[in-house]
Amino acid sequence: MKARKLLLLHGGRYNPRHRFTHMVFIFTLFVSTILAVTILIVTLGMFALHALDIIAIPDTPGIIVPIIIWALASLVIGVITAAIISRIPLKPFQRLLDGMNQMAQGDYSVRLRTGHSAVGRKLTDSFNTLADELQNTEMLRSDFVNNFSHEFKTPIVSIMGFAKLLKRTDLPPERREEYLEIILSEATRLTDMAESVLNLARIEKQSILTDVSEFNLSEQIRNCILLLQKKWEQKRQEIAFDEHEYHCLGNEEMLKQVWINLLDNAVKFAPEGGAIRVGMVRRPDAISVSVSSSGDPIDAAAISRIFEKFYQGDTSHATEGTGLGLAIVRRIIELHKGTVEAAYRDGCNVFTVTLPQAQ
């Protein structure tokens, strides 16, 4: 909006030099005003001291005229000097204004050269940091829109395709039943995706952790394991859990989402008959929960992006999830001022959550 106003003010052609000239004029006017006031104070002070017989001013006729000429000459020289010299300290601000104008027009790739002065360096560093953050945010927004459009379109196309097949009257009952199951599955996937997006949007807007209480963390994780019992039993997997009882300070409902997402991922990616282990370590100032699962290792490229929205490193399981679970996990842990990490250790994929605890 501001960029548009600048364009209108300059007849549709924004010229940064106009703004720079305006800045030089304001700076010169400011310096000149200070200089004029200083000269006036010094002159009046001299006459005041003369009146008090502290200093002597020659009573030569016409002495007032040279004093006035001296004051005016000093003022003119000061104005010209200020106008010339002011361009040097104002150049970093001019580059800053040029860069801000480019960013206002949507160009987040602009960067400023490092200034020579201390002020110039600070302005340059702050501007470049801001530009980096805006560019990353724009890339994330663009990736999110593209990925969401793709993920949302895929099940819709599948539903439309099988719905058209169901219109055929010569379909055998078993085929009709199969197509209906696929449609229900894809519709469920769309519902889960919509709920995950809304959930993620809600917690991303949240900046302060609310409803913090102390609860039995071990009991909560055991309940999450039971909720997923049908899934891990179908794959004949074994889950080992630390038998110790630990209490935790945090938002109980949010942390429940964390354990369900991590356990669900472990069950999904662990092989038939694989092993899953949940370990807990209590330290004076924090508590760590690790979820380990056997299976193919997560490669380094995937680990660096695994917590991004819609990212799914293993495309063979793409239809089993939305790619938002780990993004939700990371945001919830960030709200708790904790950390979540993924690694491959000792033949297992390990996700470790560390939550700081008040002493």
- Number of helical runs? 11
Secondary structure tally: strands: 7
Query: Helix content range of the residues, please?
Result: 55-70%
Which residues form runs of ≥5 with pLDDT under 50? 1-14, 315-319
| SSE pattern | HHHHHHEHHEEHEEHHEE
Supply database-style keywords.
359 residues, 61% helix, elongated, disordered N terminus
Short structural description:
The chain is an alpha+beta fold. The chain has helices at residues 2-9, 16-51, 64-85, 87-104, 118-166, 173-205, 217-227, 229-234, 252-269, 300-305, 325-335; strands spanning 212-216, 238-241, 247-251, 275-282, 286-294, 339-345, 348-356. The strands form two sheets. It has a five-stranded mixed β-sheet with strand order 2-4-5-7-6. The protein has a two-stranded antiparallel sheet with strand order 1-3.
Give your account of this protein's structure.
The chain has 359 residues and is of the alpha+beta class. It is built from eleven helices and seven strands. It has helices at 2-9, 16-51, 64-85, 87-104, 118-166, 173-205, 217-227, 229-234, 252-269, 300-305, 325-335; strands at 212-216, 238-241, 247-251, 275-282, 286-294, 339-345, 348-356. It has a five-stranded mixed β-sheet with strand order 2-4-5-7-6. A two-stranded antiparallel sheet has the order 1-3. A hairpin with a 3-residue loop joins strand 4 and strand 5. The longest helix is centred in the middle third of the chain and has 49 residues, at 118-166. The model is unreliable at 1-14 and 315-319 (pLDDT under 50).
